[in-house]
Amino acid sequence: GSTQNQHHESSSQLDPDPEFIGFINNVTYPAGREAILACSVRNLGKNKVGWLRASDQTVLALQGRVVTHNARISVMHQDMHTWKLKISKLRESDRGCYMCQINTSPMKKQVGCIDVQVPPDIINEESSADLAVQEGEDATLTCKATGNPQPRVTWRREDGEMILIRKPGSRELMKVESYNGSSLRLLRLERRQMGAYLCIASNDVPPAVSKRVSLSVQFAPMVRAPSQLLGTPLGSDVQLECQVEASPSPVSYWLKGARTSNGFASVSTASLESGSPGPEMLLDGPKYGITERRDGYRGVMLLVVRSFSPSDVGTYHCVSTNSLGRAEGTLRLYEIKLHPGASASNDDHLNYIGGLEEAARNAGRSNRTTWQPLLAMLMLLWMRLSLRTGGA
Amino acid sequence: MPQTSPNWRQADNERTKGAVSVIAARNWATGTATQDWSQKSSSSWSSTSRRTGISRTRTRPATLTTEMTVAGRAERAGVGAPWCRRFFHTSPLASWLRISFVLLVLPALGFGIQVVTCSNPELGASAPDPVDLTWGGKNTEGQLTTATRSTLPDSPMTTQNDLITTASNLATAKKPATAASEAVVDTAETAETAPPTEATSSWSSTAVARGMSSADGAGEAIATSQSAQIGLTTQATVRQTEAQTASTATQAAAATSAATSAAIASAAAATETAAEMLISTIYPASTETDLHNSIERVEGQRGKMANAFHPGVPDSLTKGFSIPTFLPPFPVFAAADLPAYRAAADAAEAAKLAAEAAAQAAAAKTSSEAVTMSPEEQRRQMFNEQHSYLAAHRDGGDGAGSAVRRNLTMPVLNITAQMGNHAYMPCQIHRLSDKPVSWVRMRDNHIISVDETTFIADERFQSIYQEDHDYTWSLQIKYVEPSDAGWYECQMATEPKLSAKVHLQIVKPKTELIGDQSRFVKAGSKVALHCIVRGTLDPPKYIIWFRGQKKISDSDERTGWYTQLDRNIFGTVGDNQNTIGSLIIPLVRKEDSGNYTCQPSNSVSVSVDLHVLSGEYSASAIMSTAARTTKGGRSTCHSTLGLLGILGLLWAMQGAMHTPPTQT
Fold first, then answer.
1. Given A95, A376, B43, B419, which is the most exposed site by the fewest CB atoms within 10 A?
2. Closest-CA distance of chain A to residue B574, Å
3. What is the pLDDT of residue A147?
4. CA nearest neighbour of A267 among B25, B242, B144
5. What is the count of structural domains for chain B?
6. Which pairs with CB-CB distance under 8 Å and at least 24 residues apart come from B183-190?
7. pLDDT tens, B397-451?
8. Side-chain half-sphere of B541: how many Cα atoms within 13 Å?
């Protein structure tokens, strides 16, 4: 008993217990940088300091000796009290807590943690690829991203337009410049929503990353002819125009002539033998100039009839067809007559041309009144001849 | 000149239609096959659309013609509708014709008056204008009303044409110009343009002649004009009817020839033809990046299937499968329709199923083998794998990936130690590598040692190097305590680390007393005290009995007391062992009362209080009985007989206790 008491007294007097000075600061660094954890100890004496990774209990260092074979880990003991653990070229796997131990009984320990920041990255396997959806259906664009901190996912349109989003259960479309969230839900798609969308993942650790998702909204063609009745003098060039909306891209062509009872059946070898008028397909060449311009799902079909002649008078059809349907527009072309060599009075000529213009406007209203312009023209001719006869 | 406008239009239409017909005739068979092909899959529309959208080359007419043919056939069922619509529109047009006729008379009369005066040549030049407009409109509308009227002969026009010389000269003047223009356009059409011209001339001259002579001239003029109109309309109607008939006949002939050619051709030829058409109508290359990427992806996906189904023509078929991802490819349907390809597909499917079955069988065999292996065999196998791994990466500092690391994890080793003894935990990592070996106590992540350097302050822990063993750096814990139980891990400082876990269990022996804590016996009886030690890995070397503070010797000649030690009673030999220690007092006296203690060598002690009672009247009987029993006990030296003796004594005591009240 006396021996133990003496030993206890001597130890308490001569060697005070080691203790920590302050705390180990937690650090946050991007990947690739260097992290340092400092552990300060007072009254170490004969005791030892060791470093250990807390997540998987890996012994890293003992005093100044690095135990692990990881070349990126080193220990610095510059001043008397501080033992520093240095991890260079940080990796994501280095994230976690590290323990500084003093081999007292019981052991004393302090823990410091390292957070490694990772730039965002988009997971292609879990994100949407290019989509082709029919108009009226739903589509969901998905974009999954990884990184530390967890990235924010933002959707934008590539062309800078506003994103049209429909509220669930509502008919109206909201316009938003950007949409936050990994899933962009588009309900009852409209053709206006077709285009390229960008998924942007960012988490304040540069660089941000983006992925392009092309959304194709498919629908049957729609054709509209702005001018359905065109008049031009002989010998001049006249341009016929049709506006087309279609997706996927349609096959477009021009037909000339009224529709017969057989429809397309008449376009065959029989037409050559019979000689009856049927719709003929117009080809690009010296007589007809056929061009087509497309911008997205919209397009314009242009037909230029060069050196207008009486045989060019008639009905023209612009036809557009794709895998989902077919549509066509109808235009009529007629001749405007000028008399530069006539020696009659100007008033009569102006009245003549004015009448033609009035007839053209009436013709555009409906088909049931097609005979009215002809009747008006006949009356005008008769009045003119009667007046001239009276004058003589 | 103006009077030839309708003929001019007809000529132009016919020439253009001729060109179109030539193209159609050339592709008629192709169109038929394409139609059959498109019925199996709708990809033709999309491929055609895509091709046309991408490039506007000269091949467009052929494609357009094919499409028109398909559309025309689709519309064949609706041919009847226009007829109904036509009859419906006849009534309003008839009323319109009456108004037109009335209006026509007035300009005609005006024209006649001017001709008679002949004073203004310019008026004469402008006179044909109303005729041209009226004639064109009437010609178009007249076709619709001819079916209900009869045909009249043309002879009156010829007769009246010779009456007036002036009118004849005017007609002659017009003819040369018309003939010249027609010659320039198309010489073959001259015959068709002559009748309308003559009709017009005769009509004008007749009107003039009759107008001058009598009031009936107007009636004749009207009749003549009606006759001329009917004639022209009849001819046009006949031509249209002939056109329809010829068209129908041509289509029927084409269909028949197509069917015949289809019957003649073989299945393989048809497939190749369809594939070639598909290739010729699809342009795999595209200037658009997205389309090109998608095409390549589709080709990659379909490449294997194409090779499996069509080994004969790999190049053409591979080129032809540039189809968008949202449409099914053509070869799948073709394979389904042909018996040969269906058999090939079935064979491929059967082979696939067989391969899957074989894989499953192999997996089952592997798993069964894994289950069969014992922990020792697993440990040995893992040890060998570690050996291979370390030999391969002797110089590599950073080691291999996590997959290899996971495989090299050793199974858990369980070590059991008895409290107070020493525990030895081997580190099951091969000693090939010269890297440091560390021990960690996982309860509190305490570093214990690194190689021979001890970190933990507790001096009971030590790392021991064993030269003559497969394992190095075993961890020794002396005089283990219950708090030492738990997980310990040895690590080899590779990157990532190699580690082996050891679970240490501490068993604590327990000493129990057989019987009550306080014993009451009659003086002169034989007494046996027993204690049992349970749960030991090592049995106690000795069990010492004490009376108070005085140790009882194993065998006392004077008093006859002796002790006894029995091992492996009521316990399993392999695991825990039980040991019984006994103290035998042959003849107990009153002064033998006191506290007796059983002290095993490796467990705690237990005590029992012995109370010896005295009874005079029964003492002699008990003593005599005890003496008899004692002799038997000594001779046999069996504890069982001793126990039976004790029971007999108790029974006798109970009987004796009931006797004294009777005597009193």
1. A376
2. 35
3. 94
4. B25
5. 2
6. B185/B8, B185/B11, B186/B11, B186/B15, B189/B7, B189/B10, B189/B11
7. 444 343 344 445 677 889 999 988 899 998 888 765 678 889 999 999 999 999 8
8. 2
Q: Which of B5, B240, B458 sits opposite A276 (nearest CB)?
A: B240
Residue A93 in 3-state DSSP? helix
Q: Is residue B161 part of a domain?
A: no
- Which of the listed residues B507, B540, B559 is the one where a domain comes to its end? B507
Instruction: Quickly state the pLDDT bin for A96 (edges 50, 70, 90).
Output: very high
Chain B contact for A292 (CB, 8 A cutoff):
yes
Hey, is the C-beta of A274 within 8 angstroms of any chain B C-beta?
yes
Residues 189-218 of A with CB under 8 A from B: 214
- How far apart (Å, rounded) are the C-alpha atoms in residues A356 and A374? 10
**pLDDT tier, B136 (very low <50, low <70, confident <90, very high otherwise):** very low
Residue B378 bridge partners (DSSP)? none
SS (H, E, C) B645-659: HHHHHHHHHHHHHHH
Query: Residue A222: phi, psi to the nearest 5?
Result: -130, 130
Tell me, yes or no, whether B525 and B616 share the same domain: yes
Contacting B residues, span 478-507, partner chain A, CB-CB under 8 Å: 489, 491, 493-495, 497
Dihedrals phi, psi of B211, to nearest 5 degrees = -65, -35
Out of B507, B523, B553, a domain closes at B507
Domain, as residue range, for B491: 407-507
- B571 part of a folded domain: yes
CB-CB neighbors (< 8 A) of B114 in chain A? 385, 389
Instruction: Supply the CATH number for residue B455's domain.
Output: 2.60.40.10
Residue pair B331/B344 in contact by the 8 Å Cβ criterion: no
Average pLDDT over residues A304-309: 94
For residue A206, the 8-state DSSP code is: S
Cβ distance B78 to A388 less than 8 Å, yes or no, reads no
ω before A286 within 30° of 0 (cis)? no
pLDDT in tens, A235-252: 999 999 999 999 999 999
Partner-chain residue, chosen from A59, A261, A374, that has the shortest CB–CB distance to B447: A59
Q: How far apart are CA B388 and CA B405, in angstroms?
A: 13
**Nearest chain B Cα distance for residue A57, angstroms:** 6
- In-domain check, residue B436: yes
B558 vs B408, residue with greater confidence: B558
**pLDDT tier, B191 (very low <50, low <70, confident <90, very high otherwise):** very low
CB pairs under 8 A between A and B: 250
Does B422 lie in the same domain as B517? no
Q: Which residue has the tokens 């226009």?
A: B82
Q: Is A383 on the interface with B (CB under 8 A)?
A: no
Report the amino acid identity of residue A211.
Answer: K
